[in-house]
């Protein structure tokens, strides 16, 4: 996802989708790969491990963090209807309405995240 967002944000055209208040599940690629290895190597792990960061963020928080990491403004909202047009309505809902996911089973299994904060995660990706 970061690959598709990089250019608009780098050009200062990035910003929250709609109000930006919708939750946006995220996880740093390093944490995701570590989680997969952890699940494979740990025989005590049972059930579903949600591959999302333990600290949820809104689309607005993500946009501001990514813009800040790139040293670019990221406050111009993108109207939700743009995604209704670019994607079909069902796919647009995933982006415009969001979902708050808490990785309870992942945390209770003992997995340790390296990137729990969206700002730190974004900075590491553009460094």
UniProtKB/TrEMBL annotation:
Signal peptide: none
Domain spans labelled DUF1731: 78-125
Pfam families: DUF1731
Protein name: DUF1731 domain-containing protein
Species whose genome carries this gene: Acanthoscelides obtectus (Bean weevil)
């Amino acid at each position: 996802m970061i690959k598709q967002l990089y250019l608009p944000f780098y050009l200062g055209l990035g910003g929250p989708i709609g109000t930006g208040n919708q939750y946006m599940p995220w996880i740093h690629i390093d944490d995701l790969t570590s989680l997969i290895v952890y699940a494979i190597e740990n025989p005590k792990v049972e059930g579903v491990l949600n591959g999302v960061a333990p600290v949820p963020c809104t689309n607005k928080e993500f946009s501001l963090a990514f813009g800040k990491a790139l040293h670019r403004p990221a406050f111009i909202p993108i109207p939700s209807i743009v995604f209704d047009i670019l994607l079909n309505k069902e796919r647009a809902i995933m982006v415009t309405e969001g979902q708050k996911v808490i990785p309870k089973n992942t945390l209770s299994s003992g997995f340790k995240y390296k990137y729990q904060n969206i700002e730190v995660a974004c900075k590491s990706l553009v460094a």
